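During the first year of the project, the team set up a workflow for recording each protein of interest as an amino acid sequence followed immediately by a discrete structure-token representation. This format lets reviewers and collaborators read both layers of information side by side without switching files. As required by the reporting guidelines, we include two representative entries from the current panel. The first entry is reproduced here exactly as it appears in our internal archive.
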Amino acid sequence: MKFSRILGIGALTLSLAAGGAFAQDKAAKQAEINKATTASLIKFYAAKPELKDAVANAPGYAVFTTYGFSFIFGGAGGKGLVHDNKKNTNTYMEMASGSVGAQMGAAENDVLMIFKNVATMNEFINKGWTAGGGATAAAGAGGKTVGGGAGSNAMSNADSYTLTKTGLEAGIAIAGSKYWKDKDLN
């Protein structure tokens, strides 16, 4: 009887400790994404100062840091958040993309999306698909961007901007991306 009681108390203690560790881990991961978002916004504002007002006056915006590789076929993944300016809340998200075309490169990018209305922002949070195509020629090192891309995406009520942090990309491609809520961070 005593052994089962001790075992029960031990299991309860472990479960409470694990729950607390997860909460700290969750908060640390959220803080890391918040810090990366702030750093990315500072870079976007330095590259294009009018974006600061656009972000402040929009219903909301999204910022992602992505890592990708391409050679004819390409793929990328990353994490970020959508910030609702009215509610002052963040929805933490993940993303993955695939592309095909005359392309080659490997890069780390910051992506900024500025939503023109609440409906588009909410649709992005809940559905998260985008598709697009275009041409790019970009190189970056040490957080500095040299070049940029041109193209279109399927979100007509959002503007999208990309900064190449490190790496080199060049080519023409058709791409699709999926964004989804990070179930562990929300």
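The second entry, processed by the same pipeline in the following quarter, appears below.
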Amino acid sequence: MTKAECVRDFGQLFMMAIDGPRLPADVAEYFAAFRIGGVILFSDNYENPSQLRQLTAELQKNCSDPERPLLIATDHEGGSVQRFTEGFTRVPPMAQLGSGPTEVTCSVHSLAARELRQCGINFNLAPVADLSAAGDAGAIGNRSFGLDPEQVSRHVAAAIDGITLERLLCCVKHFPGHGATSVDSRQELPTVSMSREAMEAGLQPFRAAIRAGVPAVMTAHIVYPNAGDADSPASMSEYWVSDVLRRELGWKGVVITDALEMKSLRSRWTPEYCGFRALMAGVDILLYYKEAHQFRAFDELRRSLAKDELDIKRIALSLQRVRHAKQALVRSPTRT
């Protein structure tokens, strides 16, 4: 891709949010003008299934084209992390599913994905692949399938099978592992002191997810000072994104950040700086969820790209990966 094409399509590397259950006209115009690639929806964007179908239809109609659909995402893990509840089947916590057969995990995620797809959601930011190494009191708690790497790996793969069966993209998270800390990365920046060797068990579910064909991997806002990068959280670390995830684990698909305005990051860096660092590390999609931050970050990072402060080759590769993921949605046959 040429530099001009990268600048033109740069918005494809952003996932943004909207306020409330309706699509504001000015936001729709912005998304369309700058080819924003994705939208994340939360509980404040939801009233009922009918309203959600209307909202997602308007997003696709006004902000995308048939060959490059908008990624419309939500966190539909189950348990305490399920943005849409009324009119949707309640998904149990993953700890509950992890203690049972993988066939149930697959069927539960297939049903959840079907309900999401029927409302126009095409990207579920699940499943969680973290081990619950800190126990139920940890930051991940019952969002994890369990403590045992092999058990968690089997259930992660089953969840991916269930979601992709319904033609949804999914996203395994939070690489390289969030379970070993009791600190919530939404509030504080956790530090995990484990060595690289000790972290290998926590990487097993991510390896299993890659073998299962997961379309995307989400990075963690956690620093691992004794495991390869002493200064940067994994979401902004070339070591974790490019060296470990891509080269060591062989990941060729999309890498997406966790939300870049979390308090844990904002206490040290601006959202636009975090986005810059993540792109330089090899991340493909930057996730923002506050309008004021997302528009400012996009405008500043787009200027950085135009001024050659970002690596054009890396941006071109990221655009190719996002395009490939979207083509999988376009090619998917219709299910009834």
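For the second entry, the following points were noted during internal review. The first strand starts at residue 14 and ends at 16. The chain is about 45% helix and 10% strand. Both points are flagged for discussion at the upcoming steering committee meeting.
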